[in-house]
Automatic annotation (TrEMBL), chain A:
Organism: Roseiarcus fermentans
Protein name: Copper-containing nitrite reductase
EC number(s) per entry: 1.7.2.1
InterPro entries, alphabetized: Cu-oxidase-like_N, Cupredoxin, Cyt_c-like_dom, Cyt_c-like_dom_sf, Cytochrome_c-type_DH, NO2-reductase_Cu
Binding site for Cu cation: 115, 120, 155-156, 164, 169, 311
Record flagged with keyword Heme: yes
Gene3D superfamilies cross-referenced by the UniProt entry: Cupredoxins - blue copper proteins, Cytochrome c-like domain
From TrEMBL, chain B:
InterPro entries xref list: CTDL_fold (IPR016187), Sulfatase_Mod_Factor_Kinase (IPR051043), SUMF_dom (IPR005532), SUMF_sf (IPR042095)
Limits of the Sulfatase-modifying factor enzyme-like domain: 29-259
Taxonomic superkingdom: Bacteria
Matches recorded under Pfam families: FGE-sulfatase (PF03781)
Signal peptide: 1-20
Name this polypeptide is given: Formylglycine-generating enzyme required for sulfatase activity
Keywords of this entry: Signal
Molecular function terms from GO: formylglycine-generating oxidase activity
Amino acid sequence: MRPGSFGSGVAVVAMLAAGAALGASREANRADPIVGEETAVLTDAPNVPPPIHRNHATRVVVHLEVKEVEGQLADGVRYVFWTFGGRVPGKFIRIREGDEVEFHLDNHPDNKNPHNIDLHAVNGPGGGAAASLTAPGHSSVFSFKALNPGLFVYHCATAPVAMHVGNGMYGMILVEPKEGLSKVDHEYYLMQSDFYTQGKNGEKGLQPFSMEKVIDEKPEYIVFNGAVGSTTGDKALTAKVGDTVRLFVGDGGPNVVSSFHAIGQIFDTVYPEGAMSAPTHNVQTTTVPAGGAAIAEFRMSVPGTFILVDHSLERAFNRGALAQLKVTGPEDKLVYSGKQFDLVYQPEGAGARAATGERQVVLAPAARSKEERIKLGAEVFANNCQACHQQDGQGVPDAFPPLAGSDYLNGDKIRAIKTVTGGLEQPLTVNGKGFNGVMPAWTLSDEDIANVLTFVYSKWDNSGQEVTPQEVKLHRVTAGAKETKE
Amino acid sequence: MGAAAVFVVAILAVASPAAAAAGAERGGLVTIPPGLYTPFQRVKAANSGETEAQAPEAIAAFAMDRAPVTNAEYLGFVTAHPEWRKSWTKTLFADGRYLGRWPADLDFGHAEAGDRPVTDVSWFAARAYCKTRGLDLPTTAQWEYALADAGRDEARVRARSLEWFSRPNGAGPGAIGGPVNGYGVGNLIGLVWEWTEDFNAYAITAESRDPNGNDSAAVCGGAAAGIADASDYPAFMRASMRASLKANYTADMLGFRCAGGAP
């Protein structure tokens, strides 16, 4: 039996419930009388405001504050984000079709730049942008009636748009259909986007925006929820076996389209492009266009860590587009035996990666002691290894081998150097369990590899031995990155 | 305008700031030579509806402040003109944040603020200040022409602009001074946005992506059919900033300098 086929049985039930198109006509929504007024509850990702139980339209007041703030884009990498509400992505807004929204765009006086907002849920010039260009220290107000149900992206549309969006100015607004959405156990907000830093991926420090790279559409980072690792480790999404999960997935761009996929979990229902009219079922990967959205619903059948990726995989494993959903509960050996596994698809072979000639030039200060080596290695680990081998070094059963207490690792230091520098593409046994994935050849510098191995050896009851750059140089399989600084 | 003539004048202009730098004077007027300026926005052609580059505008020689007007200089102005003190000024002419960093009418706070550009001033106030010196605010064309600096150092100026947009505001602008461009003008970028006389005339439409916007041609978006150089992000940013303003607005990073006909 294939993984997820139990889930598709559930989907049949869901299909009966959600078979008809949801929502009313534009005319009906335009005429829907407004009763009462409320202030919108706004949430930061991955949280979503509570479902709407009203059976009438109302006036919803939204106060969205634009703030230019410095934050973390990846470990050791700082960036000045332009935000709707203080974080990337912007606040999630939830209204009902027929609602009249009184929108206040507040541009904080400490900001340097003018901003506006284009909500794709609006029918009108610029989606609100024409009415909301706002100088720092000022506030714009406009109103709109929600005529179309669906999940919509909003973003800043002030010139140059690609710079405002490239700095983080997007979020999502859900216009619930009158019928409401089906009840689920968890709703989460996940938004992919691309960032263009002057320094290469992994280069530390405060990184300025690169106009050249955004024009060439060559992002350094492609991430979920505004940062590498925003939704992994102890910040992973959670659910229990038997729970239904609804993901509101958006793509802020500015340039890159997402091939959104959950490794090891089939989507029972997808509302493609966030439209309520034609849900589809049993979907493996759904396209989320830049400036577009999708809703994915699924029931968890078995426990484990499910990895959410942009299945254009370079982005997931090398640029950051990777999140985790951790599911706890009893095994179901009928659904998933534990011997089969979802083989991670790596389009580039180990050799190919090393042969491209492209290097990640990481500013790698030389460690002067073993303690420094461990400290610097922790950052290398977070940027390169943690996505698969996990923060706690436990790996992912059947997919990525553990490093914690690993006999393969601790038994032979030179083998470890050869594995990291040369990659591995053959079955291996770690602590008695078989693995058959692909590890790419890492083109890191001798220093970085020495540091990360020393870090790994220092953790999780491992042997504690030190690896030096000289040893890496002696035993490495492929050439590494140059240590030169730009 | 012959390029040679511009060149000769430019040499003179370059020579003068070095002399000035020796003295205490970091402000003061600099003479900008005449030349041609092609506006950033394109215009709709009369018959076809297509956009086309605007005809280059002839810029006559003019004088411009070397640096933005400072708090210390502005203190002199409000001392002599009580109607522009923060407690006296009507919101019609300056919004509620006018001189927001000043603790009191005749007090700009810390002594080091004296050398920093005055900010939180409205267009009305800035203009009134320049009038007392027998000057005006520079036109947008004059300001942009001075920044363009006859094409010198264009890439670096753009890079520095982007860097400035991306730096959080923090404690406000630093002190004036430092390097000047080929014309001898300094601090056009990197400290504050600046008012121009006709800030709303070139205005980018509020909906900046519409190539057929009623009042202009300033567009953005990928195609950017209406822009002379779609990759000049800092020019978009300046146009957007000017478009977001009204004459009584003040902002924490918005200052000004004065300009006038050539002496």
